[in-house]
User: Fold this.
Amino acid sequence: MGLRDPLYWLYERRLERDLSSREMPRHVGVVLDGNRRWARSSGKQAAEEGHRAGADKIFELLRWCDELGVQVVTIWMLSTDNMSRDESELGPLLRIIERTVERLRSEGWNTRPVGALDVLPDSTARALKETEAATFGNPGLVVNVAVGYGGRREIADAVRSLLHEEAAKGTGVRELAERLDIEDIARHLYTRGQPDPDLLIRTSGEQRLSGFMLWQSVHSEFYFCEVHWPAFRRVDFLRALRSYGARNRRFGS
Assistant:
């Protein structure tokens, strides 16, 4: 291990130098995949140990992003589909999420919930809402915590919110249909007011986004990493940024 450390350090420094002349993403989204697989491969007794290790890794990621000038990070911790998991795993996972959110609050990260809070237990939804209120307006990195999140659900919620808003103003369905545009829906997304993600990262080797930021990712660059999330290193993050910086973004062409 001692022999590898200096080599790792030199490689990390080289990656950082490569990034100095490249564009940095404003908004990075991360699918935190592979906690359970990491636990199994590491000889852990329960998936909960993988989820705890994955939660700790989030704070390393946030520090890296803050140091490198990223403005917004969205971390997908729990999907709407995950809500159907067996209670023996879901219960401990929700408690880990609540502790993670409380730690985000104590460390002062500007934290915003991203998801359908009504599908969550009261204690989880309350932790998210209270942390958002306590950290709102804090300077520095904005941290979107995607819990109870699904891309299709987000779009459905946005349309539903738009319809309620217009109905309250007396707008008829025909009138709304004639003038509806993309920005009308975007104003009601969970991430309204934020830049769309420039870079989306998924760990653990799966090469799909599973509906993550389905609307917002139309012009995003994707980076898929083989390593399980709890084992994700700073050098892995720098490689993702290097890959992003080397791409010619054509925005739909």
